[in-house]
Design brief:
The chain is an alpha+beta fold. The protein has 12 helices and 10 strands. The structure holds zinc ion.
Length: about 350
């Protein structure tokens, strides 16, 4: 991957090739040799062959069909990469492994490398920091993030809030080149420059974060965001936003309204809407920490925040769940697709700030 930035980013180019590697007629200096051997050591630690444990995991995955044609007549066909079981389809002759068509199908990077990346990601670390820690080119962070979004695409599908349910909308600015101008002036307030995200929370700790694709909640956007995610007969705690009425009537909810006059000036612990305010605060903080990044996949970000804030709360258990979902999610993310579509816009908006 070429570094297209005008600036010389210390992390933008591959760390594998050092400037003095290209000088054929000159012997590197002792300082250069020290740097080379250190960087090679890092690189090798990061790009080793899969471990015994990783191979056992991959070979334990049950294959039900050929990833290319979907037929079930395939045979075992030798091993690769130090012991990963290969298969061959008898119908279409395609060779594959258990990881074909998953986000792990690029075997240059072992699954184990993901563990460190996910550790940082689930800790609210910035992606830029993770890329540095992983000692890969900086674009890897964005590429992996898209893979994470793919794995978590349907993660909130079955969420149902029940009992005491708190809901409230929060707003994120849209990316800069989409800012709506009126007579050459930027529109202010909750205009088309903000995207509404429906947030929910219940006293069992369930979380919901759904992008409403609109600037102001309407009956329709409210219903689309929350309709299937609140159990009928629950108690709804909210600020009395008009469009919530459709939820109250369709789902037969008991409505308890706290107006902003009532909650203004209350201490957090006394504010009945504190759990949902807290959720807003965490989500906004997370987005701020990832300020330089493309905001077009806002739902992807919300799914990630959801995953971080939901059970299991232990990071290692989260990583286990993520890897298990990823292994069974047969969707591929191609490097060139991520950057072909977004490359231009990304560069333009690189300095657009998050709110
Ligand atoms: Zn096939």
């Amino acid at each position: 991957m070429k570094n297209k930035s005008k600036h010389h980013s210390p992390w933008g180019t591959s760390l594998r090739i050092l400037p003095w590697d290209k000088q054929e007629d000159e012997e590197p200096t002792l300082t250069e040799k020290l740097i080379s051997s250190t960087v090679t050591e890092w690189y090798e630690a990061k790009h080793r062959e899969p471990s015994e444990e990783e191979i056992s995991l991959i070979n334990s995955i049950e294959i039900t069909e050929c990833p290319a044609c979907g037929k079930t007549s395939f045979v075992k066909f030798g091993f690769s990469h130090g012991g990963i079981q290969q298969y061959k389809c008898k119908e279409c002759n395609v060779r594959f492994t258990a990881l074909t068509n998953t986000i792990f199908q690029d075997r240059k990077i072992p699954i184990s490398e993901w563990i460190e990346y996910l550790m940082h990601l689930f800790e609210f670390h910035s992606i830029a920091t993770s890329a540095r820690d992983n000692r890969n080119a900086s674009s890897t962070g964005t590429y992996w993030l898209h893979k994470v979004f793919t794995v978590l695409e349907d993660i909130q599908k079955d969420v149902v809030l029940e009992g005491n349910v708190y809901i409230d909308e929060m707003f994120f600015p849209v990316i800069k080149n989409k800012t709506v101008l009126k007579d050459g002036k930027k529109l202010r307030g909750i205009s088309r420059n903000k995207i509404c995200v429906g947030c929910g929370y219940d006293d069992k700790g369930h979380v919901l974060l759904i992008v409403e694709n609109t600037s102001k909640p309407s009956d329709r956007s409210t219903w689309n965001a929350y309709g299937t995610h609140i159990k009928p007969e629950s108690t709804l705690h909210h600020d009395g936003e008009k469009s919530h009425g459709i939820l109250i009537s369709n789902l037969n909810l008991t409505s308890i309204v706290y107006t902003s006059e009532e909650t203004k000036g209350l201490k957090d612990e006394d504010n009945p809407l504190d759990p949902i305010n807290d959720l807003h605060g965490l989500a906004k903080r997370f987005m701020r920490e990832h300020g330089g990044y493309d905001r077009s996949n806002l739902q992807g970000w919300m799914n990630l925040i959801w995953f971080i804030l939901s059970e299991p709360y232990n990071r290692f258990e989260k990583i286990r769940n993520f890897i298990e979902i990823a292994i069974s999610t047969h969707k591929v993310v191609k490097y060139r697709d991520v950057f072909r579509k977004k490359g231009r816009r990304n560069r333009k908006n690189h300095h657009a700030s998050a709110n």
